[in-house]
Amino acid sequence: MKRGVKWGLILLAVAVLAGLWTWRYVTMNAWYDSFSQIEGVEYHQMAERLAFGENRLSSGEIVDGYFIKVNSFEIVDYRDFLAGWTPPEDFDPLFRPDKLALVRVTLYNEDSDAEGVLLTSLGLHGDDAYAGMDWDLLTALNPVLEGAYGICLPKGTEYDLVLPYGLFSDNFSSWTWRHIETYPWVLHLTAWPKELDIVLNG
């Protein structure tokens, strides 16, 4: 009797594991199939007024009716930047990167009813590197945000913004860090169905 119970439990465990494996296999394949919705990457140039269209931000929102234009891009030393800028009294950053990548943009709302554009969903990346947005500087450099990470513009208006990204030397090879100003960066606007990227240098 005990031997029969033992084998019964073993068979039950095998059946449960097989069921879990099947469920995981099906869900993983469904997840990978979702990437088939991506239509490819479109590269655009600075100074081009670019529509977000029906494409989704990395955060998932559609901001059709909004447009964006990159006006300038530069990489500066973080300490030099702070020395030449008067921060708000309450500015107390959590992280202090070695350098900053500053992307100056104009955001337009031509005819959108969207709740706004989440600026932290706009990514900066290169061939093999990603730079995270400096959230503390984002709100400090753009007082219009009033501490938020997104902006909603009235229809028919535009606004100039500075998007700051922190660069840490530890995240790059020594050769890349020495040539960081000429490293090929792009501003990633939307994730799917079309990936829209703006080439910032290179």
Describe the structure.
By secondary structure, the chain is an alpha+beta fold. The chain has four helices and eleven strands. The strands form three sheets. A five-stranded mixed sheet has the order 1-11-10-6-7, with no helix packed on it. Strands 2-3-4-9 form a four-stranded antiparallel sheet. Strand 6 (about 125) and strand 7 (about 130) form a beta hairpin. The radius of gyration is 23 Å and the shape is extended.
Number of helices: 4
Mean pLDDT: 89
Distance between the termini: 75 Å
Q: For the CA atoms, what is the radius of gyration?
A: 23 Å
User: Helical amount among residues, as a percent range?
Assistant: 25-40%
Structural class of the secondary elements?
Answer: alpha+beta
Query: What's the main sheet like?
Result: 5 strands, mixed
Query: Tally of extended strands?
Result: 11
3D shape: extended
Please list the strands of the largest sheet in the order they lie side by side: 1-11-10-6-7
DSSP strand content: 25-35%
Parts with pLDDT < 50 across at least 5 consecutive residues: none
Q: What is the H/E string?
A: HEEEHEEEEHEEHEE
